[in-house]
Every structure is written in structure tokens, then in C-alpha cells.
Amino acid sequence: MRVIVCGAGRVGYSIARRLSQQRNDVLVIDQSVELVQNMTETLDVQGLVGFASSPEVLDEANAAEADMIIAVTVSDEVNMVACQVAHSLFNVPTKIARVRNQAYLGKAWSDLFNRDNLPIDVIISPEVEIADAIRRRIELPGAFDIVPFAGGEIVALGVTIAEACPVVDTPLRQLQSLFPDLELTVIGLIRGSKVVVPAADDMMLAGDKAYFTCGREQIERALGVFGKDTKAGGRIIITGGGNIGYFLARGLEKAGLARAVSVLEVSRDRAEVLSQLLPNVAVLQGSALDSELLDEIGVSEAERIVSVTNDDEVNILGGLLAKKLGTSKAITLVNNPAFSPLLGSLGLDVVIDPREITVSKILGEIRRGRIRGVYSIEDGQAEIIEAEALDTSALVGQSISKAKLPDGIRIGSILRNGRVLSARSDTVIQAKDRVVILCMSDLVKKVEELFAVRLEYF
User: Fold this and answer.
1) Measuring CA to CA, which residue among 93, 149, 147, 102 is closest to residue 122?
2) Who's near 170: CB < 8 A, 6+ residues apart?
3) Residue 57, in any domain of the structure
4) Which of 92, 235, 378, 429 has the most CB atoms in a 10 Å sphere around its CB?
5) Strand-pair category, 184-191 with 154-160
6) 220 assigned to some structural domain
7) pLDDT tens-digit readout, 199-217
8) More confidently predicted of 61 and 101
9) Which range marks the domain in which residue 305 is found?
10) End of a domain among 352, 371, 401?
11) Residue 85 domain-assigned?
12) What's the total number of domains in the chain?
């Protein structure tokens, strides 16, 4: 597949890296000579310096031969125009654009993005995606990560294994006999900084981060198996009233948690706007690093501090300050991956990487075969993938044990006729099954092949 990536920032770099690792033909366009040079020196990609929406630049990039354009520059307008030019002049089949400004995405303008106007196939709005990801973590406090699949019927959850975890040091195959009516499968472990795809005889160790899948209706019971909280409660303080903070507060308001939510915004003008947009939420003006103000608004009694300003240092320091003053848990947004190795030892409970969320959303839109959803973990070391099995899919009609899947692939849950099943060695994949899988990044192509639509299907 030939892909043009417009924008060589963090998101563009991550997308180009993932696609090139999976043997796609990738060309990156950016105005920065330095960023393009860094791309071409560190990745197996081509680079082109120029304005991404320029017809001349796209022509030089041989856009007429491209299968897809992904526009993730810092400018919404450049992203949209790049897709328009790619469509009108070069007939690029698939066009994906990142659009941050919500003014373009209002319901009143729903006809803007169609083939007759702005022909963009997929709009990625990262602030909404990030806010939703944080809201899910707040609603299920026992998990550090919650990802819905199969229309929300299957959920992948990440939990930290503590010394007191009831199933620590237990071989995974024993979970089935210990909880025979619980459809739960551990699909991946993060041990240190590495992702491990476990075998049935492997055990979860204290300090591991485990990803498991289960049905939506069994979430609370499944979290209980790991000794985790299942109910949201207590006050929530959001620092940062930008788009992410606003969407998060609005989402919590819709979930019935607004009375326990306060938003702290440093800009007086923005705080006044938020107070009008969020009439049921307490909005205050001030700095997240003002200990007297935090004490005044009752940070010691807060269950969670959620730091989502546009400054990583403020988010990190604000979260640590709130915890020192008595807040139980800190959820922190961090854009710069250079901080990642430091954050676990500092005492921050959940770190949100907006780049991973955005990249996962884009990857889910470009996978081949019958791939329905993708979620990237640990900087792309592995992916959790939802795939639909068709009559001609290679897995259909045989048990998982006979499929002889590579060691780096583990099937978790299956949605079949409205029922969620846990994958066992004797489970036979059937046509129309929705299957959730964890695989190492170098095996993504193998998963795509397993669920590819073969010619005889048509």
C-alpha cells in the first residue's frame, strides 16, 4: 500500500513508523527540513519538503499512484485542503484528516465533509477521543486503560497487578477452572517496558500490567477478580479548560457525575466561557500550581485530579502537587514521549498519551481485510485488533489450537450472535464472529491475512 503522510510531527512520525515497519510504501511531506530529514534518517520512508496542500508538491509526491493520504499537520485547514486536492486532482481513493477545531464539526455543518464538498473519508478529532478515553478511566477506576470493541459489547481493560491481587502468581490456564462462568481472557502483559504475549502456563507477577478482554456485562466481576474498584465516586478536579477539559467535563455531566466535578482554568476569559457552556459544573479561574487555591477548593478531599492543560510540565507538577495535598489518584496528560520513562516512578497513577490514542484511531481506519478496530499499546509494540471473520477467512471452521497461530498472537474474546465468548483452545471460529486479538506489531500483517476477504467471496 502506498501512503502519503502530511505532517512530520509526533503523530505523523508514529503513523509513518508503524506503516513502514509493516512494509508499506510511505512518503512524508512537511515544511520542516529538519523533521523530514529526521524521518528519512530514522525510518524506511521517503521525505519531501513542501506545503502539504500544494498541487505541485502532491504531484511531486506522485499522489496519482497513492492508495491513501493521511493529513495530520498542525493546521486543520491545510489538512482539509490537502485531502481536497488529493481527491480533485489525483483521485486518491482514501483520505483521512485530523481536524481539531470543533467549529468545523458541528451538527449544523454535517454536510461539509462529503464527496460533493470536502471529500474526506475519515475525520479524526483527537480532543474528543482523548476526553472519551479519560472519562472511561474515571467511570472504571480499577483499570488504567479501557478500550471498547464490537460496538461496546467487548471491552479490553488494563489493570496493574498488585502484591495483594487474588490471582497473582496464578497460571493463566487456571483462571478458567477458578471462574468457570466468567468469560475472561488475559491477552497481554507489560513487564517492565516490554509487551509479553502470554501462554497458558504463564503467570501474572506483581508489578505487571495486564490486558484482558471480557464482555461488557462482566466488567465489574472481572475487575473484582483482580481486586480492583468498580465504582466511580468522590470529587473530580479537572485542571485545564481547553477542548479536552471541556469535552471531559461535558461527558461526565452526561454520565451524571457533574455535581462532583470542578474545572480549574488559568485564563479568566476561557473560564467565563466554560461557566456558560457547563452550567452544572463548578468552573474556577486559577493555576493548577497554586497550592493555596487547590487547598481552598478541597483538593485533599478529591478522589481524582485530571491534568489536561496544554503544558506537560504543568500537568505533571500539578498532579504531583495535588497528590501531596491529599488527592487519591492523578490522571495526567503528557504529550512529550521523552517524559515517559520518568513518570512511573514519580507516583502518577494514569498517564494519557494523546499521540497513542490518535494513532490508534487512524490505524483502525486503514487496516486491510475485515479489521474493525485497532488500539496500539506501549508505543506501538503491540496492537489489540478487532476483526470480523467471513466465510473465506483462513481461521473459519477450525479450532484455535489447530490454527497454529504464531507465539505473538493471542485471541481474547469473540462476539457471536450477541453473546461474548472467551477464546479456548477448542473454540472453533465461525463466520460473522467478531474476534478481539492482541498481536505484536510485526505480526499485524499475519492477522490481516487471516481475516482477509478472498476473491471467491465475491
Assistant:
1) 93
2) 178, 203, 204
3) yes
4) 92
5) unpaired
6) no
7) 989 999 999 999 999 999 9
8) 61
9) 235-352
10) 352
11) yes
12) 2
pLDDT for 345 equals 73
pLDDT of residue 456: 39
Tens digit of pLDDT for each residue in 370-404? Answer: 888 899 998 889 999 999 998 888 889 989 988 88
Q: Identify the residue whose cell numbers are 482539509.
A: 80
| pLDDT mean across residues, the chain | 91
| Pair 265, 277: CB distance under 8 Å | no
Closest CA to 450 of 360, 152, 435: 435
Cell of 88: 480533485
Q: What span, in angstroms and rounded, lies between the C-alpha atoms of 39 and 33?
A: 10
The grid cell for 311 is 503544558
